[in-house]
From TrEMBL:
This is Peptidase D. Its cofactor is Mn(2+). Pfam families: Peptidase_M24. Keywords: Hydrolase, Manganese, Membrane, Metal-binding, Metalloprotease, Protease, Transmembrane, Transmembrane helix. InterPro entries: Creatinase/aminopeptidase-like (IPR036005), Pept_M24 (IPR000994), Peptidase_M24B_aminopep-P_CS (IPR001131), X-Pro_dipept-like (IPR052433). Belongs to the peptidase M24B family. GO terms for molecular function: metal ion binding; metallopeptidase activity; proline dipeptidase activity. Residues 106-370 form the Peptidase M24 domain. Signal peptide: none annotated. One of its GO terms (biological process) is proteolysis.
Amino acid sequence: MSQPYCYTGCTFLKLCIWFSLMYLKIKCILLTGFSVEFPYSTCFHFTSSEKTWLKKKEYIVSAVVAGCFLISISLGFFRFNVNNKILHPEIAECRVIKTDMELEVLRYTNKISSEAHKEVMKAVKVGMKEYEMESLFQHYCYTRGGMRHTSYTCICGSGENSSVLHYGHAGAPNDKTIEDGDLCLFDMGGEYYCYSSDITCTFPANGKFTADQRAVYEAVLKASRAVMAAIKPGVAWPDMHRLADRVHLEELTRIGILKGNVDDMVKVHLGAVFMPHGLGHLLGIDVHDVGGYPEGVERAEEPGLRSLRTARRLQPGMVLTVEPGIYFIQPLLEQALHDPAQACFFNSHVLQRFRGFGGVRIEDDIVVTATGMELLTCVPRTVEEIEAFMAEGQSSAKSFGCLSSQKQ
Ligand SMILES: [Mn+2]
């Protein structure tokens, strides 16, 4: 039988290959406990006498290497002292302050996710299921942005579900039918190469805010914009949370749900009854990114503030969410009404109108700059913008048109 090349000339090469395979085989035995038989003859055209010779050598080499390994273990050669802690703060800090290239990716995730939210706002109709909106969002992110994953499970709460902060999980999988008069609170963000976005839009399912929905929405928007105007390097994040709380309390008093002095309300932490979560969090490779509490930064004990995922002072290059919200959560309202220190501020008959209202959250992603901040999210935000945008979406009677518009 003819051979493809001369054995004598290739003996050295074959031995090199054999040594490499032996190395892999020993690695395999050490790691998995299983041996691998290499098909020497078929792959490398070893003759049967070469095979026998190699087999003998293989046993000898295996025995020598295994012996060396056991000896080195017993001598403590592999007992390296691994310190899992020493670099943790440095790595976390690298993640907190974004590079220009990271910011480019975060701008991209926000741009696509903002567009996806807008497609959902145009497509929503009374009678649809919440999960249809989740599906549309994901479809847009993937088909238009190449974003296969979302940063977290989509929260598509309508009606009273909009007051459930982490709605949408397996136990409550966005499966309610969207009804006329419902507010939709859709908290969804696409992810690109692990970089997150985290955006919440709240809007009326039928495209038109009621007077009460408008009042609560505008209270939250006012808090959001007050915080954005105050953001700059050096500002302490808990102070931004306090600022949002104060605006909420002032506006709830103006609406008539609360009565009395806002400073006194702040003293009894009334803001946390309506916004029981933190104002916002660091965002990046994880949606709730690391580095929120480095050494020397302590978590506050007060209601609301204790939910903050960071209490740091802002620095240029930090990326955060700004997500104030006002929710009418039955157990929290009951608790407040049973606490004389808080109950005295409520107008019960006005509050009654808001039972079952759900909630409003407005969530944007921002970068702290040298002088202030850059807003990454771009969706309709004022009541007028939302109503005009939704009317446009409904009048064009366009179904989810990502594929047709892609042809343009
Ligand atoms: Mn968030």
